[in-house]
Design goal:
The chain is α/β, with parallel strands linked by helices and about 325 residues long. The chain has helices at about 25-30, 45-50, 70-80, 95-110, 125-130, 165-185, 185-190, 200-220, 235-245, 250-260, 265-275, 290-295, 325-330, and strands at about 1-5, 10-15, 35-40, 60, 90-95, 115-120, 135-140, 140-150, 155, 300, 305-315, 315-325. The N and C termini lie far apart (about 50 Å).
Length: about 325
């Protein structure tokens, strides 16, 4: 399946097809490429890509959120420079959200911007972070606060790659699909309430991509509707910063963030049942005062207020402006 994403300044395809990783060269063409991956991507997938571009360098970064920093970004840019990449060359990212975010940001600033292609290898990156053009690194403990909007030239989504993903990583990625179901697609959320939801993986990925594509096309730079895709993320990012990812993964923090912010009790009960089925956490022992401080430092904060996403009706998210007192009340202080 091929889905085209139309933004104000570009159009690019998403190829959603099992086995498409093995056709990367056919789709990308004869471009001079620079490959970026991480050491958590199984060697079989890195090899499958490298074989198609035997002369291309592959820069492998350490796995984990800690790689989204200036030090690793600098190392990647230096390697690109050492290999004499020009403005006509292409960065190809193979990995999860960290690889995609870092690679896209590197491509956006190298030579004032060069082409890059995303090949997501995790559930989270397949359904969410690989499309839409958000690229960033973390800075002084704040998630994604240094970055750029830089759309990929192409995205290759191969669900076969999920076969090597451990259950915890698979489930944390599904938190992003649950988020999209809650805010935009009730039928997507309802898939997770079925007994056989694992048999509908291709449908989950497709519906998630259709939601993300539509939102990005209508609001590329997050001035309005795209903010709805931050459901669960404001508290979630605070949980991530609090624990420094030593205890919880991104999707796990989003799961707890959705439970924290959601006020409709019926929906909250349904959400908890789904999260429990996926063995995703619904609460934690974080210091509530510290979480409030971190929320007020979020990149979405604006002079004492924060834009929060709320869901009163399944499939219909809405934006609310919360002040410091509402943030405290939301977490139960």
């Amino acid at each position: 399946m091929k889905l085209d994403v139309h933004t104000k300044n570009s159009t690019y395809p998403i190829y959603l097809e099992r086995g498409v990783l093995n056709r990367a060269k056919e789709l990308i063409g004869e471009a001079n490429v620079f490959l970026i991956s991480d050491d958590g991507v199984p060697e079989k997938w890195r090899t499958a890509l490298q074989k198609q571009f035997p002369d291309a360098p592959m820069h492998v970064i350490p796995q984990g959120e800690g790689s989204k920093c200036f030090e690793v970004l600098q190392a990647v840019l230096k390697d690109m420079l050492d290999h004499h990449l020009s403005r006509k060359d292409t960065v190809v990212a193979l990995g999860g959200g960290v690889v995609g975010d870092l690679s896209g940001f590197a491509a956006s600033v190298y030579m004032r911007g060069i082409r890059y292609i995303n090949i997501p290898s995790t559930m989270l990156s397949m359904v969410d972070s690989s499309i839409g053009g958000k690229t960033a690194i973390d800075f002084y403990g704040i998630k994604n606060c240094v970055g750029a909007f830089w759309q990929p030239a192409m995205v290759l989504v191969d669900a076969d790659v999920l076969s090597t993903l451990n259950p915890r990583l698979l489930h944390e990625g599904m938190a992003e699909s649950i988020k999209m179901g809650m805010t935009h697609d009730a039928k997507l959320f309802e898939i997770f309430e079925r007994e056989d939801f694992m048999d509908h993986m291709d449908e989950i990925i497709e519906r998630s991509l259709l939601v993300k594509r539509g939102v990005v096309e209508r609001d590329e730079r997050e001035s309005g509707e795209r903010k709805l895709l931050n459901f669960g993320h404001t508290y979630g990012h605070a949980y991530e910063s609090y624990y420094e990812l030593n205890r919880y993964l991104h999707g796990e923090c989003v799961a707890m963030g959705m439970m924290t912010v959601l006020k409709n009790q019926e929906l909250k009960n349904r959400l908890k049942k789904v999260l429990d089925r996926l063995q995703l956490p619904t609460s934690c022992d974080a210091d509530k005062e510290k979480i409030c401080q971190l929320v007020n430092s979020d990149k979405k904060a604006d002079h004492g207020t924060v834009t929060m996403v709320q869901v009163d009706e399944l499939g219909k998210g809405k934006l609310e402006t919360w002040d410091a007192e509402m943030i405290r009340k939301g977490i139960g202080i």
